[in-house]
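Let us practice reading a record.
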Amino acid sequence: MLVYDSVDRVPLNATHDGADTTLWRVGPGGKAKLATENYEITCSGTGIGPFAYGAGVAFTRTVMTEVDPGMECLLGSGGGDGVSRMTSATMRYVPAGSTTPVTISGAPGASRIAARWPALAIVPLRIPQPMGDNVTPPTRGTNQIESWNLRTQTRRCAASLAGVPTAVATNGVQIAAIVPTPQGTNLARLSAINCAHIGVLTLSRHVRPEIVAGRHTVVWVAGRSVMALSDHRVTRLYRGALVPHGLTLSNGRLVWWVTGSGGASRVLRLVLP
């Protein structure tokens, strides 16, 4: 199953552009449109933020509001903090086999999100925050993680961390997060059931905001290496000449891509131990 979003910048009038955002699901039944939103840049509207797949698609719907005192969106200004801001966000879910989103009552919009049925891990968005002339909604988060049950669409628990997570993953039982702090970057692990802290590991420098969680292993990118934590041991799974990007887990295999000096990209795969 593949889920992706598309963002198109479209002219609206002589001084304004709009952003059309669409969320798509691609599977055995073909390509399906799950949601469409529109935001008038520097003015108001709605957009689609971070999303994740977990026996269905959970996604963030954002609401942008004009805050210019003259209510003119500062036409032709090119944007700025005083033009518009993201004022609210909700979490929506499209069950497998459906194309109709439903709102998960009480769930916050996500700055980072991960899912593995029935667990949904959310790093809540900081609300409000300025839009300016952004085409896509901003993703500044809080220093919290919330765990939700997709089956019942209820919150299980919440936990505070030492910093704002830049990446989050879950295997359905645990939640793992990359958390930059003044003292260094941490790998924090929590229970997806009650948010109890399982462990914190201080990582080396140059950690990228990418993390995946297998049944027994947590994997992240540090420099040009793919690193793993399993059974309280840290090992290097891969080291190359180029920086790994887009780390994901698919059918028990780690997948990422690298880009060479000429701009050509290639995809690499590795069986998760």
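A brief commentary: Residues 226 and 238 are 5 Å apart (CA to CA).
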